[in-house]
C-alpha cells in the first residue's frame, strides 16, 4: 500500500470512529455551549475529535493535526503532512436532532489534500476520496451533467454573522435570480460531497472558509470531476477568500453569484 493509499484508508477509519462517538450522543440530552456569537459546541464534538486524533496518532504520531475544537492547531502547515478534522460539521443541525451532519477528515501534504472522508451516520452515507476518484458508500460518484442554470440547485454555505446578515439575504437573492432553486443544508461538509455526488450543482460563499469546514469536501468535488475556485475564479486553496464549487458546467454563473453577495 502506498503512503497515499494508507492515508486514504486512515481518513475513512478515523472519520468512522469519530462519527460513532457523535452518533452515540445524537438526540440525547447532551449539553450545548456557545462559542462566539452564533456558534455552538457540545461535549460530543470534543469527544469525537479526541477519538479521530487517537486513531490518526496510532499510525502517524508525528503528523500535524488541524481541528475545529480546542487544543489543536487552527492553521494548515505549508510543508509536510497534516490532518484536518471537523468532528461534527453541522452542529446546529445536530443539537436540533436534524440528521444533516457529519464527521470530516482530510489528509494533506504540503497543504494540498490527498485523501478525505466524511461520515454522515444519521443519513447512512459515507463519502470518501482518494487519488483515483470519489465515492459514496464505496460506489464511484460524479458531479451532475446539468448545463442549464434553470435546472440547477445551489447551496449558500458558511455563516454570515449578525453584523453582515444582509450578505446572507444577498446570497439567497443571487442564487434564486440565477438558478432553479436554493438548498441550505446547514453543513458545508455535507453540502460539498452532495455536489460531488450530483445532488447539487453548486455551493457558493463570499467568505473565507475554515479548513475543517471545506478541505475534505473540496477534494471530493475535484475527484468527482467538478471545479472549485475563489471569488476571482482562481484555484481554491485553504486560505482563499470565497468558496465557489460547481459541477464545472455552471462555474462562471456560480462565481457571478458569489461575487454579487457583497456588492448589493
Helix content: 25-40%
Average pLDDT works out at 95
Number of strands: 14
Percentage of β-strand residues = 25-35%
Question: Can you write the helix and strand succession as a string?
Answer: HEEHEEHEEEEEEHEHEHEEH
The parts where pLDDT drops under 50 for at least 5 residues are none
Sheet having the most strands: 7 strands, mixed
**CATH H level of the largest domain: which superfamily?**
Fructose-1,6-Bisphosphatase, subunit A, domain 1
Over all CA atoms, what is the radius of gyration?
Answer: 17 Å
CATH architecture of the largest domain: 2-Layer Sandwich
Structural class: alpha+beta
Number of helices: 7
CATH level-1 class of the largest domain: Alpha Beta
Q: How far is it from the N-terminal to the C-terminal residue, by CA?
A: 52 Å
Q: Biggest sheet, strands in spatial order?
A: 3-4-5-6-7-8-9
**CATH domain topology of the largest domain:** Fructose-1,6-Bisphosphatase, Chain A, domain 1
Tell me about this structure.
The chain is α+β, with helices and mostly antiparallel strands and 264 residues long. It folds into 2 domains: 3-140, Fructose-1,6-Bisphosphatase, subunit A, domain 1 (Fructose-1,6-Bisphosphatase, Chain A, domain 1, 2-Layer Sandwich), CATH 3.30.540.10; 149-260, D-Maltodextrin-Binding Protein, domain 2. 33% of the residues lie in helices and 25% in strands. The chain is built from 7 helices and 14 strands. It has helices spanning 3-25, 43-59, 91-95, 165-178, 188-196, 215-223, 251-260; strands at 32-35, 39-42, 64-67, 81-89, 102-109, 112-120, 125-130, 133-136, 139-140, 153-156, 181-182, 202-205, 227-229, 243-246. Strands 3-4-5-6-7-8-9 form a 7-stranded mixed beta sheet, with helices on both faces. Strands 11-10-12-14-13 form a 5-stranded mixed beta sheet, sandwiched between helices. It has a two-stranded antiparallel ribbon with strand order 1-2. Helix 1 (3-25) packs antiparallel against helix 2, helix 4 runs antiparallel to helix 7 (251-260) and helix 5 (188-196) runs parallel beside helix 6. The longest helix is centred in the first third of the chain and has 23 residues, at 3-25. It is globular and about 50 Å long.
Amino acid at each position: 500500500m502506498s503512503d497515499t493509499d494508507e492515508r486514504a484508508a486512515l481518513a475513512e477509519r478515523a472519520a468512522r470512529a469519530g462519527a460513532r462517538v457523535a452518533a452515540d450522543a445524537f438526540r440525547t440530552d447532551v449539553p450545548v455551549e456557545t462559542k462566539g456569537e452564533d456558534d455552538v459546541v457540545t461535549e460530543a464534538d470534543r469527544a469525537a475529535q479526541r477519538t479521530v486524533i487517537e486513531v490518526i496518532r496510532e499510525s502517524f504520531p508525528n503528523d500535524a493535526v488541524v481541528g475545529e475544537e480546542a487544543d489543536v492547531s487552527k492553521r494548515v502547515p505549508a510543508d509536510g503532512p497534516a490532518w484536518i478534522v471537523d468532528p461534527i460539521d453541522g452542529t446546529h443541525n445536530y443539537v436540533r436532532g436534524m440528521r444533516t451532519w457529519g464527521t470530516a477528515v482530510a489528509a494533506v501534504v504540503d497543504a494540498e489534500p490527498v485523501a478525505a472522508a466524511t461520515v454522515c451516520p444519521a443519513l447512512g452515507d459515507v463519502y470518501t476520496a482518494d487519488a483515483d476518484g470519489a465515492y459514496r458508500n464505496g460506489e464511484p460518484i460524479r458531479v451532475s451533467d446539468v448545463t442549464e442554470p434553470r435546472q440547477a440547485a445551489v447551496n449558500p454555505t458558511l455563516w454570515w454573522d449578525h453584523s453582515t446578515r444582509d450578505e446572507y439575504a444577498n446570497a439567497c437573492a443571487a442564487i434564486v435570480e440565477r438558478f432553479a432553486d436554493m438548498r441550505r443544508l446547514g453543513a458545508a461538509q455535507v453540502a460539498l460531497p452532495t455536489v460531488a455526488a450530483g445532488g447539487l450543482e453548486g455551493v457558493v460563499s463570499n467568505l473565507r472558509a475554515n479548513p475543517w469546514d471545506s478541505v475534505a469536501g473540496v477534494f471530493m468535488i475535484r475527484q468527482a470531476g467538478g471545479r472549485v475556485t475563489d471569488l476571482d475564479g482562481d484555484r481554491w486553496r485553504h486560505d482563499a477568500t470565497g468558496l465557489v464549487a460547481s459541477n464545472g458546467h455552471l462555474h462562471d454563473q456560480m462565481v457571478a453569484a458569489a461575487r454579487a453577495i457583497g456588492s448589493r
